[in-house]
Write a structure and sequence with these properties.
- The protein is an alpha+beta fold and 167 residues long.
- The chain has one domain: Nucleoside Triphosphate Pyrophosphohydrolase (Alpha-Beta Complex).
- It is built from 4 helices and 11 strands, in the order E-E-E-E-E-H-E-E-E-E-E-H-H-E-H.
- The protein starts with 11 loop residues before the first strand and ends with a helix.
Length: 167
Amino acid sequence: MNSSSKTAPPPHQLIARAVIWKEGRLLANRTRNALGQPYAALPGGHVDPGEDCKFALAREMEEELEARVRVGELLFVSEAKYLGGKRGAKPQHELVLFFAAELLGDLEEAEGRIASPEKRKNFGWIALQDWPELNLIPHALRDVLSGASSARYEFSDLSQSQQKAAP
């Protein structure tokens, strides 16, 4: 293969997310993707270059929820390749680490929502029976957290199916 036919590898992203339970309910952010489809994701975010994953998760919890947490063991790893959500977006490749975490204080709650300094966030506590309609991502995480699966790693390559489905 000559150098002119090589394509740049997709940018890699390292993300840390918290699995936090309260009275049998899971803390999650309900949102929509770029196509307007609803989904839920656990709190957390990108790990900065040179940053420890557990430290990054504690920092993200402080930024998203003004909450201090104790980050525990690694529970699940999700690796995914996909096209970005916007037309013409570059392929993405992310590795998401899901850690058990414990809140070290209460979250500010009102009318079923949890306060966040990040206004676009919509955090709440989600009961297990609400998960089927919730579109919790990654999808394998739902089975792991409910005890239906003992898997600790998932790989998804959505980029091929997304390219075929593109108009």
